[in-house]
Structure formats: C-alpha cells, structure tokens
Structures
1.
Amino acid sequence: MTHYKAKIIITVISAISVLICGMILTWYQVISLEQRRSMQTAYKTLNSVETLLDEAKNTADQASVLLSEPCSMQVRTKLERIVISARHIRLIAFYKGRKIYCSSFSDMDAINKSYAGFINSSLAIVKNNTVSPGIDAIVLQTQYPQGIIVTSLSTAWISEIMHFFNAQHHMDLLIDNDIKSSGASLLETGYVIIKSKKYPIAVSFYSAFNIFSYKFITDGWVSLLLSAILSIIVGVLLWRYILHSPSLYENLSKAIDRGEIIPWYQPIVHSNSYGTYGVEVLARWISPSGEVISPENFIPLAEQSGLIIPLTKKLMAQVGKELPEKLEGQLQPFHVGFNFITAHLQEPEFLDECRAFIKKFPPGTIRLTAEILEREPFERVSQLKETLRQLQENHIDIALDDFGTGHSNLNYLSALPIDIIKIDKLFINGLSPDSGSQKIIDYVIEMAKTLNIKVVVEGVETQFQVEYLKKKRVDYFQGYYFSKPVPINKLTLR
Ligand SMILES: Nc1nc2c(ncn2[C@@H]2O[C@@H]3COP(=O)(O)O[C@H]4[C@@H](O)[C@H](n5cnc6c(=O)[nH]c(N)nc65)O[C@@H]4COP(=O)(O)O[C@H]3[C@H]2O)c(=O)[nH]1
C-alpha cells in the first residue's frame, strides 16, 4: 500500500469513527431522554388514577359511618347523596358475608349479580354489568371494622386519563391480578412497570430500543448534524495538517518542477595524460536554504517512483544550457555521461531527447554516454540489447556503471553491447600497498581488455591507486584525487 493510500484510509477511518461515536452518543442521549419522559408520563398517569381512587376511598370513608346502621330508606338516601356529591363515583354498596345488603342503587339483585364475581378483589374492573349496562366499572373495596364498602367508578374516567397521557407515550394500566399474572413476563420483554404504593395498580410502558428509533432522527438531529460536521472537520484537519505533511515524494516532485535539482560535474581523466576525457553528470538537490542534498537521499526514491525520468530530463536541459561554453579548447569529442535507468532508455522519445541534447553543442564536440544504472537483475535483456544497439548507431556510448557490485554484471557483459565499464569505488577502496584486492581488479581489467571494452575506475583517491592502475593500463580515472563533483562555476578542465 502506498503512503498516499494509507493517508486516505486513516483520514476516512478517523472521520467515520468520529461520526459513529457521535451517533452512539446521540442514540444514548435520545434513549435516556425518552426513558426519562416515559417515566414522568408513567408517574403522572399513576398519580391521576390514584387521585380517582382516592376519591372512591374518601367516598367510602364518608359512607363508613353508616355501616353500623341497618339498611333503611334513610341510609340509602344518605348514600345516594354522597354519590351525587362525589364527581366521579357511580355507586356505593355495603356488603357482609359475601353479599351486598345496602347500596345507593335500589336494585340489589342487579348489584349482586354484577359484583358477585369480584368479591375477593380489592380492586377490579367489572365488565358488562347490569347496574350500568354498556359502561365498564372500576370497583374499589375498602375494609372497615364494621364491614366492607364497595365504591364504583366508570372506567370512562380512567380511559380519559390514559388517552390523555398515551398521546405522549403509550402506557398500559395494570390492575391487581394483572400485575401478578403478567408483570414478570412484561419485564422480560422490555417493559417498565411502575407500581402504586397506595392501590393495587401499576402503569407499564415499553422501553426497548426499537421504539425510539424514529426519535433518533426527530430528537437527535441536532447532535447528528453536529457529529457529521465534526467528522468532516476532523477528516479535513487530519488530511491537511497532520497526515498530509508533504512527503519526500511531494517535496522531490516540487523540487524538480522548481529546478532545485541541478547538475554537478565530476571530471573523468585520461590515465596517461591526466587530461580531461569528459565528465559524469551527478544530480544535487539545492534546498531553498542553500543546503546541498546528496543524491543518496533522493535518487533511490526518484528511481522507485519514476520521478527519475523528469529529473534526468531537467538535468539534460540544464547541462545543455551551461556546459557548451566550458568546452572551448577541450579535447574532442568530450565525453558527457548521464546515469539513466533502463526504463528511460526504452521510452520511444528517448533517442530524440538525446539528439536534442547533442544539438546544444557544436557538431562533433561531445560524445554522450549512457551510464546504465540497473540495480535489479535485467529483465527482457533482448529488448534492452536492441535499444542499446540503436543508441550506439546514433553515436551514444554505453557504460556499465558500478561494475562488480550488481547481481549479474558478467552476464550483461556478454549479453549487451557495452563500450565502457566503470569499476565501482568499492574495489578501489581496498586497493592499498598492503591489500590483496589487486587480483580482482587485475582480473576485471584483463577481462575488459579481452572484450575490447574501455575501463573507467571510479573512486580514485590516492597516488598509490593512480600508479597501480596506470601500470594495469586502465583507460580513465574518476575520483577525488583529481576532482570531487562540482557545480559548473567551479568546474576546471585540464
Ligand atoms: N568516496 C568517494 N566517492 C567518489 C569518488 N569519486 C567519485 N565518487 C562518488 O561516486 C559516485 C559516482 O557516481 P555513481 O557511481 O554513478 O553513483 C551515483 C548514481 O548512482 C546516483 N546518481 C547521482 N546522480 C544521478 C542522476 O542524475 N541520475 C541517476 N539515475 N542516478 C544518479 O547517485 C550515486 C551517488 O552519487 P554521488 O553521491 O554524486 O557519488 C558519486 C561521486 O561523488 C572518490 O574518489 N571517493
């Protein structure tokens, strides 16, 4: 995965994580708000029903003074008055020994028929009763030392209360046995049950998550919107300021465009006269602060990313501008070597680029050398061979760079048309009066001679190395002993 792709993934994941966290928080907020509201509605519903039952209880209390009296006309009239003066009460009845014996309603048989089945319940709903046909009654029993009083209310009042509060949140009223029979299973299925402390009633409501899903949008849209905005901000900030700090690739690409990569030159000299045979062009990155950045710090990336091709083209253009006037009076043709990757050589327009470069110099004054830099084993050698042949036909020399360090340099020597080999400085480093590395160098030089290939030895630093290599009839030297790579204004040609 590229660095760029990784940045995109990190940015997107971070932004989505912020959004998901925001959604979870909103969800939690909406649910807790909704549960609080449902709880409040449940308590209000319960209080309202309790107030009704309080009225029934108060009515019974008022009537309780009559319990010790026989059920005379007077007592009945008093009971009727009590009922009439109460707002929601429909009936008061006294009973003893499982039978109603006195009531505000004159038809005792009808009352006994309707209420007989509910004698054991302290609170019950009496449906289809004959006392008030078509209207269900809620019946409260209150025990006194002298007997039991039954007060009845129309369920219409309770329905009204439930209807009013259900408009806010759906509530169910559980009465006496309902609580015992269905309470546990309700709780298991996500219901909340609020029980009254005064009466055997309870209010239940559903609190499972799915009931709140539409509320997630209606109540939570502000925080959802804020989360979305925050996730975008996090994404943008991450991208622009934290992750998107320019990479070496971007910096290098800009540096090439701005012309910060410039050619430096290292002379290559004839081994016999020390006169300049030519130069190798080596890239240097001059940062805006003037710091000289070594190619080791950017060439590997440039080669890997393909930026090396535009970089090399820029160097060629610059060399074409500044080198010609330096060459007056030089031995001709003057060798100008560039490091090319093989992919560049094989571009269809490469030959035209070389021709355009050569044209910047007076005819016949330079000899362009393509130094092949192939760090990987060559693939498609036959295709490369063809390309190199074509270059040679166009008077471009082919030099095999860093000879001795690659994977299969010897294979290339036999497979490719090579004019020059450049023995790597690694071998020369070991060349001192007391070293044993001469044998390898001797062998390489001999082999090159046999194959009629010219030899440039790189990294020549000492007098000993010069004298030794001269004796071995090396063709050219390149190294600090003669000159380090320098910018054009410091280039001195012998
Ligand atoms: N210690 C020591 N070093 C010596 C001596 N003589 C020459 N050198 C160094 O050896 C390197 C020779 O270039 P190279 O083998 O092509 O090795 C080059 C080449 O592979 C690559 N490079 C530089 N410029 C370019 C370019 O424009 N294109 C490409 N593709 N590669 C480049 O970067 C490598 C390093 O370049 P430089 O740092 O300029 O290092 C240069 C040069 O400064 C010496 O006597 N002693």
2.
Amino acid sequence: MNQNKRALITGITGQDGSYLSEFLIEQGYEVHGIIRRTSTFNTDRIDHIYEDPHQEGARLFLHYGDLTDGTTLRRILEEVQPTEIYNLGAQSHVRVSFDSPEYTVDAVGMGTLRLLEAIRDYQRRTGIQVRFYQAGSSEMYGLVQAVPQSETTPFYPRSPYACAKVYAHWQTVNYRESYGLFACNGILFNHESPRRGETFVTRKITRAVAQIVAGNQKSIYMGNLDAKRDWGYAKDYVRAMWLMLQQEQPDDYVVATGETTQYVNFLSWLLAM
Ligand SMILES: Nc1nc2c(ncn2[C@@H]2O[C@H](COP(=O)(O)OP(=O)(O)O[C@H]3O[C@H](CO)[C@@H](O)[C@H](O)[C@@H]3O)[C@@H](O)[C@H]2O)c(=O)[nH]1
C-alpha cells in the first residue's frame, strides 16, 4: 500500500475522474478532487465513494475550485500537498467549444498553464516532487497527418477545444523540459462507459434506443453515419493514466484500442440486442 500517496484530481466529477478516484482509493491513495459550485448537484458519479471527511479513515476529499481561478488552485495545492496531480478538468464537449470558445480555451488551455505554474512554485517552495498527468485528446490530430497516429504524429486541431488541448500538451512538454517536472501527456482516444456524459454520441444513441424499446420514442435521427471512432473502456484508460505516472521517466503516450467502428455498426449491434 502507498500510504503516503496523495492524489489531486481536476475534473473528479466526470466519467474519468470518478473511475480514477475509485482506482486510486483501491491502491491506498488519499484522493482529493476539485469541484465547481453549481446550483444543481454534480457529484452523482462519486457519491457512492464519498464519506464525511470527519469520519475516521475517509479517503476522498472535495474542494471547491475552478481551472479558471488560479488563486484557488494554488491554495488547494498548499492545503492538499499532493504527490500526483491528474488534470482531467475541461469544457470537454467539442461541439460546445464552437459556441463558447473563450471559456473553453480559458479552462482547457490557460487552466493547464495555471496548474503548471502553481506546481512549479509549490515544488520550489516545499521540495515535494509532484507527478503531473495532462489529459490530452485524439481530437488534437483532427485532420490526421498519418494513419495510424503515434506520439510523434503532428497535430492538426480543428476545434477551439482541440486547439486548447494542443496548447496544454506543449506547455506540459515545456514544463518537463524547462523545469524538470515529472509531467506526462496521455493522448487518449474516445473511451466510454455507463458513466459517459449523456450528450456524447454513444450515450445519445444508447439513451434513444432505450426510449424506443420502452415505447416512449419512435425514431432516432443520426446525421452522418459514416463517422468512425476508436472506442475504449474508460475504466481501463484511467489505469493507463496512473501507469504513466509510475514510470521511471516522464513521457507522452497514445492510448487506443487500434480498432475503429462506424456508428451505424454500433447502432445495428444495439438494435440486435
Ligand atoms: N451521426 C451522428 N454523429 C454524432 C452525433 N453526435 C455527435 N456525433 C459525432 O460523433 C463523434 C463522436 O462524438 P462524441 O462521442 O460526442 O465525442 P467526441 O467529439 O469524439 O469527443 C470526445 O472524445 C474526445 C477524444 O477522446 C475527447 O477529447 C472529448 O472531450 C470527448 O470526450 C463526433 O464526430 C461527432 O461529430 C449524432 O447525433 N449523430
């Protein structure tokens, strides 16, 4: 057991944050997460592992903060004193990034820079070595420059979201090379689960099919059926994040299954069930 391991997760309320929290708690970590204040509950994915922090043996702690608020990030870092930081927080919806490009870039791009700067100062002041995971995305390849893509394939982002992720990626490399920070970029292809946000395409489709089967809906509008994705399982991918931070040297890694599926095949498979 890693009794002195303490992880801080941005985006803990998301699909990956919830699986990663479960996994790290199983590994003996104390887990701290940053959550945004909203007027509706946003912790349903982690409620089952949350215990009152006053209880002896509590392993999960939540802190209000935001990637757009650098002062709070610094304060949380000082309070928590983490040994590993997983930056999973984002405005993660590609389509929405066209509607709210400034906010997306602020949270995804500048948010990562704020965190890296906070870590740099914190490490220098305390001497505690922090390991940093940056959640990159296959969206950074956008208009793909080679098939299949690897860690060295040039990026060609095609949305405000992807542009911001590319910026965050290179800042992470830069902090590794300029300041010797143990920082890794995970370039993850799509990864799904029952906890996937309901506005992403796999959940849009599964929800619609469930409504049709229940007799509440008659049809489903699918748009372009030719689109393809490489779909992995989120629970496996969070383990990959952790493994990256357990290596001797920091590096960048692509995580994918290597198999692409057309939506139409996904839909036919669901309807045949
Ligand atoms: N046909 C059809 N396609 C759709 C629909 N909704 C979305 N799509 C398309 O389906 C693809 C997959 O969309 P999503 O699953 O919603 O997410 P994403 O855009 O691939 O982004 C997700 O994965 C990235 C890479 O891992 C992540 O970086 C990103 O944050 C997000 O999780 C995209 O090409 C999108 O245009 C729909 O109703 N019908």
